Amino acid sequence: MPRRDDIVRAARRYIGTPYHHQAALAGAGCDCLGLIRGVWRDLYGAEPEVPPPYTPDWGETGPIEHMLAAAARHLVPIAVAEADAGDVMIFRLRNGVIAKHAAILTSRTSMIHAQSQDRVREVTMNGWWLRHAAAAFGFPPTVP
């Protein structure tokens, strides 16, 4: 069973990794989903599913909540207000669009995420992020 500090430690290995769309490798490149995928591999080994190819603007097209559905298949849903270090937060970057950004909390007020045209960073989860939080999930105690 992964402990919160194990999850945070695994996520922090990605700090400084350049953003690379669809990648999931610490030090080489990752996007926000790749960060979650890479931490999953560190905790459990093989990924539970391989995401299909997706374009950088996939969240602006179509009504299907792909990221929330995938998270619900493999992670444990929790209340956003209860999320803490080691939990996954999923965000809607704009009102009225599907959720398409993910991060791993390092505390109730900070998170690690990968954002396009940047590197993976640990940042303060300020009011903007909290207002855009769509859902929160914990990593499962064991691989289903």
Provide a descriptive summary of the structure in words.
26% of the residues lie in helices and 22% in strands. By secondary structure, the protein is an alpha+beta fold. It has a 6-stranded antiparallel sheet with strand order 3-8-4-5-6-7. Helix 1 packs across helix 2. The radius of gyration is 14 Å and the shape is globular. The protein starts with a helix and ends in a 6-residue tail after the last strand.
Give me a quick take on this structure.
It is built from 4 helices and 8 strands. The chain is of the alpha+beta class and 144 residues long. α1 packs across α2.
Topology overview:
Layout: H1 4-12, E1 24-25, E2 29-30, H2 32-44, H3 66-74, E3 76-78, E4 88-91, E5 101-107, E6 110-113, E7 121-124, H4 127-132, E8 133-138
Antiparallel strand pairs: 1-2, 3-8, 4-5, 4-8, 5-6, 6-7
Helices, by number, come to: 4
Mean pLDDT, to the nearest integer, reads 93
> What's the story with the biggest beta sheet?
6 strands, antiparallel
Note the beta-strand portion. 15-25%
Strands of the widest sheet, in order across it, are 3-8-4-5-6-7
- If you compute it from the alpha carbons, what radius of gyration comes out, rounded to the nearest whole angstrom? 14 Å
* Helical residues, percent: 25-40%
N-C termini distance: 12 Å
